[in-house]
Amino acid sequence: MSERTNSSSLKLFQRAQELIPGGVNSPVRAFKAVGGNPVFMKSAKGAFLYDEDDNEYIDLINSWGPMILGHACEMVQEAVKEVLPHSFSYGAPTRREVEMAELIISMVPSIEKVRMVNSGTEATMSAIRVARGFTGRDKIIKFEGCYHGHGDSFLISAGSGAVTLGVPDSPGVTKGVAQDTITIPYNNLEAVKQAVEAAPGQIAAIIIEPVVGNMGLVVPVAGFLEGLREICTKENIVLIFDEVMTGFRLAKGGAQERFGVMPDMTTLGKIIGGGFPVGAYGGRKDIMDAVAPAGPVYQAGTLSGNPVAMAAGLTMLRYLNEHDEVYAYLENISDKLVHGMRENLDKLGLNYTINQVGSMFSIFFTRQPVTDFDSAKKSDLKLFGQYFNHMLQRGIYLAPSQFETLFISTAITDELADKYLKANFESLQAIKNSR
Ligand SMILES: Cc1ncc(COP(=O)(O)O)c(C=O)c1O
Ligand SMILES: N[C@H](C=O)CCC(=O)O
């Protein structure tokens, strides 16, 4: 393995730190949790990323999920080229927004009406406001280690970059907002029941990642999602599945289709734009009709339903809708990766934990099962950092934090999976030998 040079990335990072807080436009990108300097990307195609120093990497993040078909997919490029001569933004309704709404409603089983926004954060903030307006209640329940974007209500026991950088309860969130967010350990139905009993008639919504990607990958235990559904139905609480990561990925209809549990509202994100900035929230008609101008709950966006993002997203979602084999392929290749990693751990006499659902998985540097935030936090973060850097040196680009998940694209071939597994073995071996 020859040492990779990174002088261009390094120079860019030095410049960026003078100009941008921490040198990055989203905190997890800064590599703070794993040490070293972030790699600045120049281009990407299929399964590969290329940095400013012309190093090549196999990408296991795929822009945190949306690149299900790999980078710079030709058919998405064509769709974007087709709209560009007409306008980049109208600030008026367009045909593609209607087609997008029809497609989302046909693919995601519980959505009857949908509103486009510009990010996952906007989607979750809006969904909570609508749930509050609809129920006339103030409080929400969220789960420790789940991340729902950077809206104030969610930055309490938050996962992803917030825990990576040690600020799960961010300064700047007022006491009042914090008081209206009740946090509960993931997979603990009894705690949910107790919280609901302790605040009778006060809970507007329970928001959850039905499969968590933001404390590493954590799987809902049998009966947990069903139990939440039951409580919400009984107490007239709006159940919101945040499917920003899982939507259109774990199945055409997301985690709700895969687990057979229907929420009242769903939030969606980056995947709908095929990589362009987009989000959406949708759900039961009676709830969505509370949104302005149909109803009194205000929510708006100058660039919402942007034609370029709609064209890219429609093309990708239509393809997914019409090609079941995409999902079969993603399952098979991800199973191969996870199975191979487990074999590598066995060969090396290591027994770290790997969690997987479909094409999302993560390795935790702990021997204990990881079922919630507390167990995820038992991982050895120093070992994760070493592992990350060994993989990077071998040309594998992973999420730069223990509290994130890997996302597989259809561009990962059998041959690339073998390369990944070789790098995985060597990296684990290097860690073992250094202890
Ligand atoms: C589950 C979940 N919800 C919401 C968000 C926020 O989305 P965005 O970063 O597009 O604002 C993310 C990712 O960042 C996410 O993973
Ligand atoms: N976990 C986050 C979204 O998926 C990571 C991306 C980010 O915050 O930049």
Automatic annotation (TrEMBL):
Pathway of action: Porphyrin-containing compound metabolism; protoporphyrin-IX biosynthesis; 5-aminolevulinate from L-glutamyl-tRNA(Glu): step 2/2
GO BP terms in the entry: protoporphyrinogen IX biosynthetic process
Record-given protein name: Glutamate-1-semialdehyde 2,1-aminomutase
UniProtKB keywords: Cytoplasm, Isomerase, Porphyrin biosynthesis, Pyridoxal phosphate
Species name: Adhaeribacter aerolatus
Cofactor: pyridoxal 5'-phosphate
Localization per record: Cytoplasm
GO cellular component, one term: cytoplasm
InterPro entries in the cross-refs: 4pyrrol_synth_GluAld_NH2Trfase, Aminotrans_3, Aminotrans_3_PPA_site, PyrdxlP-dep_Trfase, PyrdxlP-dep_Trfase_major, PyrdxlP-dep_Trfase_small
Keyword Isomerase among record annotations: yes
Record-stated family: Belongs to the class-III pyridoxal-phosphate-dependent aminotransferase family. HemL subfamily.
Subunit annotation: Homodimer.
Pfam family, one: Aminotran_3
Reaction equations catalysed: (S)-4-amino-5-oxopentanoate = 5-aminolevulinate
Residues bearing the modification N6-(pyridoxal phosphate)lysine: 270
Record-level Gene Ontology MF annotations: glutamate-1-semialdehyde 2,1-aminomutase activity; pyridoxal phosphate binding; transaminase activity
EC numbers for this chain: 5.4.3.8
Main location: cytoplasm
Gene coding for it: hemL
